[in-house]
Amino acid sequence: MIGPVFLLSLPVCAFMETVCRDAAGAGMSIARARIVLFAFVGLAYVVAFPIVWLQGMAVDYGSFGVLLKAIVLPAAAGILYAMFRRMEPMRVALEAILCGFLLMIPIGLCSYAAVGANFPLADDALTQMDKALGFDWRTFVGLVDARPVFATVLEYAYQSFTPQLFLTPVFLVFGGKHVRAYAMVAAYGLLCFAACLISVWFPAIGAYAAYDMSALGLNNIDTYFGFAFLEQFNGVRGDPSFAFSLTEMMGILTFPSVHAGVAVICAWALWEVRRLRYPFLVLNLSMGISAITHGGHYLVDVIAGIGVAAVAIALVTAVFRLSPGQGANEAAAATAA
């Protein structure tokens, strides 16, 4: 069922992009797109920290140093070098990657604050929604587990989440889609912040824990990600000594599925790069399915993630004024710079 839903979401995203593009008019320049993305990242910090302080969640600020030393400083040095040498494609790629990493802190803070709001667990409601759709979660997972090759493919697809997030902007730059690279990172940020807001009312331990299915009951599916986040999830909800740490951070949101949303965003972003269009469509269709089998998401989590991603795509299309053929103009501008 998830396959058709995912595939149907792509023409919907394309339609929304066309509508927003027509309303927006001429395409946005690379320089303006850069300003918009960095302003968005700055706004994310301005909003996230007051939320955490108001909630009273403890934060290990020392853990942020890892990101600063390992990513921010080297990326900043690379950006300065690219600016000095007038290597615009390199600059765009590094800036997009840097902004993606910088968003990790406010996204992490907001996701933990959402779960830490301590609303009642929503697993029973999510289970009932799946049943209302005619979806039997246990049967579906059992069918996948009985097919070792399929289970392995989905495992690799699930773990492509982070590499895709940071390689997709690079592929877009190589494809001459500079503004789209910035827009893709912004879409990811919008998806995550929307998911954080929604998750305040839908905290959930996930299907593996809710159905009490341990790894012992499965032969080919690695259930690690279906259980690993629970220590952090339970800690932020019930441990008075808990402190948010960037080095310990995990994805603790269940509804909507950020994994499924990112699958849609990456497939949409690379649809404009013809050579990568169909390979990444297949990869991200697999990643959307793996959110259920390897991430322990309910079907409704995935559907909701797809819907939120579609809205995020529509918003960035309008804000960044994306248009067909824009890549050729951007490439020419980057070469001239």
TrEMBL record:
The keyword Ribosomal protein does not apply. This is Phosphatase PAP2 family protein. It comes from the Bacteria. The lineage of its organism: Bacteria, Pseudomonadati, Pseudomonadota, Alphaproteobacteria, Hyphomicrobiales. The chain crosses the membrane at residues 35-54, 66-84, 96-115, 156-174, 186-211, 249-271, 278-296, 302-320. Residues 205-317 form the Phosphatidic acid phosphatase type 2/haloperoxidase domain. Coiled coil: none annotated. SUPFAM superfamilies: Acid phosphatase/Vanadium-dependent haloperoxidase. Keywords: Membrane, Transmembrane, Transmembrane helix. GO terms for cellular component: membrane. It comes from Shinella kummerowiae. InterPro entries: Aur1/Ipt1 (IPR026841), PAP2/HPO (IPR000326), PAP2/HPO_sf (IPR036938).
